[in-house]
């Protein structure tokens, strides 16, 4: 009987139940999607890092490729080596790496990492497969693909005729990926927060609508605590029912989006890396949602006086405005001055909380102020702004949630676009020439330079030498601080269009005449500025050079300095040398052949940078697309809740729109008022979301990133996107107005009171 | 004083309830001259509110015709033409003032602002609103919001709104219905006083015999449907 009474409200207002259920389903779906995607992105990137991590291999001193015989010779000599066979497998062909887990037993740290080689030595899947799968049992590994022999870094002794060489499969995405993941994490926390706000607001609005029937039940002798228990049970049941399809939909969504991501990753690294297939159903996400929904909806029961349905739907701000304002001020200060990430996060949370407490009141006051300034000759305008003020007060929670969601969308859009640009730039900088030729250790770099210089019709090229140099500082262990050096010669257009964060006039000429450029990481760490003189120990010499430029060097943890190779002392031994070459009119084959002839080697590593660049940006585009999808979903959720709440709210006030009709406004004019009101509501929220979004962008790129990784992303704003968002919000406003307009027309009874329950607030 | 401002002829209205139709108003006719007042009485459910809604075009009769200030509305099929809807809206804007038992005011506006809104919709320039509030005895409360004054004061403000539009006809549906006896009488006193001053016609639905007897005419809808 009691249950019947409880459900009767929803039988009369099925849409309200539907709205709450829909909110829970969409919220669960969003959260599940976000957590699955973040998890997958993290795992995929981890595997990709591992497969492209630098390793050491043994090569023959005579330049010939290694064979199975070499493997046997080395093992017999007691050297810990293991085969590593890169090849294409399957249809469509994908690049896999064949390894021999047994041979790897002598490595202290398994080179293919934990994720590939299980404890018992069995292989867990792509990209690493058992070598016998690749060779098909023929034993002629070198015929099945490109064979390398990995060597344990601890190995000291190598037999005559062999050398070590480090090798890498592709460019390491490094911290650019980490940074992106950190931002993705921050985003999902924000999503959870917004979701909580929204679910709570819809639930409480529903409760407010049922206040009178609860009062009735109480008069019939049902105790308050019994009623509360029933309500809690009702909510638990509803959440349990709704979480299941939410989790399922979220996973389906994540997998759909993730597949594209996986494909792109595969093609970038020529390996199957995507960790997203066959993920178990993410029930934890469902559990989190269950706890969240029950938490945010029933938290009031813990506070004795303000029990659930008794509080007003608007829940007027419990704290005075200056407390909220103080919160914002402290938060902003904290973010500006923070010296660790934690404080940035705390500060950001404070700012959001403060703004959440401040904003509805502020919006309502501004609407009231505008209303006061309307001339008495335009009382309809005044009425509209007064109603707007009521709405901002009554719809405080969804308004704040929508503002946060929009700020998030704005920040994510700016961040993603910035990342895209940055990533393109970074790739262009790292892979500046079309070809990359590794200089074998036995070969003479000067000979190579001469060969290239003599080639007619060749495009720009430079000789890259990398190594370590010493800085004047001493670290905590009392050892001199070393840093990476990159020396280029000659200085050509391959570098002269790099992005310089700071530079003297004619920076590249200054570099050639004995200057030094430092990357942003080094500049930040050493507090270097333009014109300052930097003393570095290169080889046995000590050079003092003026800083002539600071270059952006995204996605690398390492500090680096750049000099003209012509100024290098003779006894500097580079750890790595290569040529970056634009072939110009020459063919790749021709260039390769000439260098092989010059160096008398049979085998040369030549990489096609253009295709790597294309593939790399493809991967990131997918990731960015995915992030955008998440943020758009957040916006959909927030808009949906505004739609639901706006609708419920307008229904309680529909009598006052009727009143306008009774006072002689034509139906079209009433609908026009409705439209203008709804548009004012959504555009007001958009307006306050803009500065918050810009601020959030700034926090992400200029505070969180430098603190976490030592480099900042350029801050950019995209007003074009603001306009797009504004249009979307306007459309939502129009939909609300249209829904209410329909309801007004459909309502036959024109008696006050019938539709007045709880609508007379101001 | 014999100019007719409101007349109904053979007016009928019924509501469907399930299969059959219940006739609430059955071939009703009356005329009302300018400055005169008429009480509409009858049991609850007898159709008083329905009649008032018909007289201001908020509901459409099934048959019969209504004449308001020289404009004739004849109903054929029980549906209002768009032109008639538009015409009724115009009449409610300038000619017919409507007061309900409650909720006549916009809650987010002060009493004065409410009166200003109503007057401006009727096409009057801003200025005289305070006068009407004072006339009805709520001048002191002009700057308060509806939820800051008593029910009686709200009804007075609602009447002030109607008079501020200088209507030819005022339709009042139990304007004192939710007030206590004492307050109801005070509000009624003001109402009749101002009605006489302005010379507008008044149609008032009421349960209150005493109130009905103060009107010039009385229309009894009887037991009703
Ligand atoms: N929209 C409607 N649909 C169906 N029936 C209606 C509708 N409006 C009114 N009625 C019916 O018409 C009859 C007259 O209603 P009305 O509200 O006019 O009575 P009333 O005399 O004003 O009553 P009260 O004194 O209680 O206000 C009632 O039986 C009512 O149930
Ligand atoms: Mg009635």
Automatic annotation (TrEMBL), chain A:
GO terms for cellular component: plasma membrane. InterPro entries: ABC3_permease_C (IPR003838), Membrane_comp_ABC_pdt (IPR038766). Residues 187-298, 629-744 form the ABC3 transporter permease C-terminal domain. It comes from the Bacteria. The chain crosses the membrane at residues 186-208, 229-249, 281-299, 319-339, 345-364, 395-416, 629-650, 677-701, 721-741. It is found in: Cell membrane. It is a multi-pass membrane protein. Pfam families: FtsX (PF02687). Keywords: Cell membrane, Membrane, Transmembrane, Transmembrane helix. PANTHER family: BLL1001 PROTEIN, MEMBRANE COMPONENT OF PREDICTED ABC SUPERFAMILY METABOLITE UPTAKE TRANSPORTER. This is ABC transporter permease. It comes from Marinobacter confluentis.
From TrEMBL, chain B:
SMART domains: AAA. SUPFAM superfamilies: P-loop containing nucleoside triphosphate hydrolases (SSF52540). One of its GO terms (cellular component) is plasma membrane. PROSITE patterns: ABC_TRANSPORTER_1 (PS00211), ABC_TRANSPORTER_2 (PS50893). It comes from the Bacteria. Residues 6-225 form the ABC transporter domain. Keywords: ATP-binding, Nucleotide-binding. The keyword ATP-binding applies. GO terms for molecular function: ATP binding; ATP hydrolysis activity; transmembrane transporter activity. This is ATP-binding cassette domain-containing protein. The lineage of its organism: Bacteria, Pseudomonadati, Pseudomonadota, Gammaproteobacteria, Pseudomonadales.
